[in-house]
Structures are given as structure tokens and as C-alpha cells.
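Practice problem 4.
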């Protein structure tokens, strides 16, 4: 059998020897220090540098982590929104087609610039057909909106109560869109009523007017 190896280490003597190397050190000339103090100082400097760099790196990493976490939340929400759209894509396409058809129908109810005179004549004939007397029928200034133009018409008619009501119903039943606004009805002579109102009709913009509107919008954006 192999004999056991006994190693006796005098720890106290080793500590005394090590402590001697830290005595009477010349702080002005570290190169003259024994090996142990020099390695101790080097190890201390390394530890300090690593610690400082570690905390600085962690600080930058924490900011980056917070930013990326915020991006993750945003991307998750965007993903959910896009996923919902993708799932309902076919239904959304059908809704878009229905909306386009509805808009086309509404546009057909708007006269063009060339048809405005005929529409004004229809409004006038609607009043005459109900035996109303026009004391005022004055088209105002055209107001151009983004996609359509609005023409206000100042109207004053006199007649019986039921005839005025029927006239308003006839205006509502015209094939073109006409609204009656700011209605004021007051008693007149011989039992008739006088109605002051603003009739508004609308027309779609022609190609030149649409181009002009786009140019104005682009100029305002700049």
C-alpha cells in the first residue's frame, strides 16, 4: 500500500513573510516593491476598472432594455391589429365595395355644374306647382368644399300653410339633394303665410376644380 503524504504548511510563517513585503514600501517608486504588493495593487486596479465598466455597461443596457421592451409592446399591438385585419380581410373588402357603391349612388344625386340651372328651375317649378308666389329666389355665392360645392339659395315664398308644407315635401323628393335651412314662417296678408328659408343644393366638382383643390391642399401642407 502507498504511504500517505503529509504536507505541513506553516500558515503563520507564510502570513508573516507576506506581511513583510508590505512594510516600508516606497510610495514614490512602486517598481521597487516586492512582487506580492505589486500584484495586489494591480489586482485592485483591475477589480476597480472592471467594476466601473460593469456598472456603466449595465446602465446603458438597462436603458436599451427598457426601450426594446416598449418597442415589443408596440409591435405586439400592431401585430394584433394587423392580425385582426388579416382575419377579416375578405369582410373588409366587401364592406369597401359596399361603401364605394354607396358613395357612387350619392354622387349621382349631385348635379354637375352644367345641370345646376336645370335644378334651380326644378326648385322654382316645385313652388309654382303648389301655387306659391316667389318674392325672392336669389342664388348665393358657391362654397367649394373638399369634394363638392355648395350653393345656397335665399328663398321667400307666400301661400297657404298646406301648400308651403307640400312645397317642402316636393323639394325633399327631388332626384337631386336639396336641403331647406333657417326656415322662418310668419303670417301674411289675407290669411296667407310668408316663409323665408335658405335652400342649399350641392354639386360634385369637375376635374379642374378637383385639381385646384389638391393644389391648394399641397400648398397649405408645404
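Answer key:
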Amino acid at each position: 500500500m502507498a504511504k500517505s503524504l503529509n504536507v505541513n504548511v506553516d500558515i503563520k510563517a507564510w502570513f508573516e513573510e507576506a506581511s513583510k513585503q508590505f512594510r516600508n514600501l516606497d510610495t514614490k517608486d512602486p517598481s521597487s516593491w516586492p512582487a506580492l504588493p505589486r500584484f495586489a495593487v494591480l489586482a485592485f486596479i483591475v477589480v476597480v476598472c472592471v467594476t466601473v465598466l460593469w456598472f456603466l455597461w449595465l446602465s446603458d443596457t438597462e436603458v436599451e432594455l427598457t426601450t426594446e421592451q416598449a418597442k415589443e409592446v408596440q409591435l405586439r399591438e400592431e401585430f394584433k391589429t394587423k392580425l385582426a385585419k388579416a382575419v377579416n380581410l375578405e369582410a373588409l373588402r366587401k364592406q369597401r365595395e359596399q361603401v364605394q357603391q354607396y358613395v357612387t349612388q350619392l354622387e349621382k344625386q349631385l348635379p354637375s355644374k352644367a345641370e345646376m340651372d336645370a335644378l334651380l328651375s326644378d326648385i322654382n317649378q316645385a313652388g309654382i306647382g303648389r301655387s306659391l308666389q316667389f318674392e325672392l329666389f336669389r342664388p348665393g355665392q358657391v362654397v367649394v368644399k373638399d369634394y363638392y360645392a355648395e350653393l345656397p339659395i335665399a328663398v321667400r315664398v307666400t301661400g297657404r300653410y298646406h301648400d308651403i308644407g307640400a312645397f317642402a315635401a316636393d323639394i325633399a323628393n327631388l332626384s337631386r339633394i336639396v336641403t331647406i335651412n333657417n326656415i322662418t314662417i310668419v303670417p301674411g296678408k289675407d290669411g296667407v303665410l310668408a316663409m323665408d328659408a335658405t335652400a342649399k343644393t350641392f354639386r360634385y366638382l369637375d376635374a379642374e376644380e378637383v385639381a385646384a383643390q389638391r393644389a391648394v391642399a399641397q400648398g397649405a401642407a408645404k
